[in-house]
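JOB MANIFEST
job_type = single_chain_structure
chain_count = 1
residues = 162
[input]
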Amino acid sequence: MIAHTDRAGAAEDAGDVGDAEVIRISLEEPDAFALLFDRYAPEIHRYAVRRLGDSPADDVVADTFLAAFRRRDRYDLTRPDARPWLYGIAGNLIGRHRRVEIRSYRALAGTGADEAAESYADRVDARVSASAVQRTWPGRWPGFRPGTGRCCRYRGRASWMS
């Protein structure tokens, strides 16, 4: 039995208890599983950061330990080190993350519009039309032809310029 009151002390008190034993105990006392998180979360996080970047890595670590906790009853207790098991779960989650990302990019490419690739100025230009400008300042540009981007020929000094 692993007795601990806080997680920091748990890592020190149970340092000689093997991973398989921690998992076995966690079947009766679920809080004991936190010891595996304390042992391996930083290591799994570094692995995920190298593969995906910082932000998705946080989610991968959380999902890795959640999946491990939910499947701990199926862990092979003859294996004393849970690290390969945890890396396998993390690797599967990283692969799933990448597949979802690729599907998203392909779906976005199929639309023909990539909001991220378009510049801000291009998006603004597309939304502002000549007729909107004319509605904003009616009568200010009498020679302006909406939709053409051109004015009528200059015939002397325009009245709106005076």
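[summary]
Residues 83-111 form the longest helix (29 residues).
The radius of gyration is 31 Å.
exit_status = 0
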